[in-house]
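Archive entry. Fields below.
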Amino acid sequence: AQSVAQPEDQVNVAEGNPLTVKCTYSVSGNPYLFWYVQYPNRGLQFLLKYITGDNLVKGSYGFEAEFNKSQTSFHLKKPSALVSDSALYFCAVRALNDYKLSFGAGTTVTVRA
Amino acid sequence: NAGVTQTPKFQVLKTGQSMTLQCAQDMNHEYMSWYRQDPGMGLRLIHYSVGAGITDQGEVPNGYNVSRSTTEDFPLRLLSAAPSQTSVYFCASSYSTINTGELFFGEGSRLTVL
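PREDICTED_STRUCTURE:
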């Protein structure tokens, strides 16, 4: 069975500081990995994905994520956080041969001015 | 182009009642799915479909039925509502079954079962 762990329920950072949201995964074989963001009372929005290739992937709104196979991690990063980045972030994984996408419990990011 | 449309946005049911949450997409997506979101548990997959006439179960299918008679529509039926089904429900679609991780989500349907 595949699963995702987001070890931090909340992350608080000051505007302009680097932001990191942690994610580790478990899946049989090679993973497809994703990050989504959810603003209050809205559906989830796709941010970025890792399928294969370069371990550092870039996505929307200045976010990037680093795939580390040995640590089974896919941490989301942003060099300089904005107040508007405050939201709920979800990491997700699926196996190559499976249609099902499994989500983590989510991490609430608060960026203070 | 409306994307993924869910109705209703809010619903209150009594225990034992049945209802259908509607989901429609106008992007000609092959893959459609239903998730429920509960605090501290993230999103859990209820049912999914890889094309018209094809459905399958996700992690938490009990108490729910789906059908996919057309590419556009993927309704979720609650057969006999229970308080444990109080949740926010999201419909999501993807343009191909190869790329089912990159999902487009609806705005959600908040269901309360009393």
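CURATOR_NOTE: Chain A has a mean pLDDT of 94.
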